[in-house]
Design goal:
The chain is mainly β. The chain has one domain. Strands 1-2 form a two-stranded antiparallel sheet. The chain has a two-stranded antiparallel sheet with strand order 3-4. Strand 3 and strand 4 form a beta hairpin. It starts with 7 loop residues before the first strand and ends in a 25-residue tail after the last strand. The mean pLDDT is about 85. The structure holds zinc ion. Zinc ion binds next to loops.
């Protein structure tokens, strides 16, 4: 049996506070991402990991249930 690791990145909108996830494609600082809920353009300014982040800063509320 082979086992693979999946990286799951959580994005938090600076404008509406919604969050969503993206697997395996690593974000880079300066990347621009549209929020799937409010549509505003966010810029990635840092990638926090379990080593340097306050745990769960994106995940304190449920993701938006209306995101397709
Ligand atoms: Zn938003």
């Amino acid at each position: 049996m082979k086992v693979s690791l999946e990286y799951l990145y959580h994005f938090c909108c600076d404008y509406c506070g919604s969050w969503w996830s993206r697997a395996d494609i690593e974000p880079v600082s300066g990347e621009q991402v549209h929020c799937p809920r409010c549509g505003k353009l966010n810029t990635v300014d840092a990638i926090q990991t379990f080593r340097n982040a306050a745990r769960g800063s994106c995940l304190q509320k449920a993701p938006d249930p209306h995101v397709p």
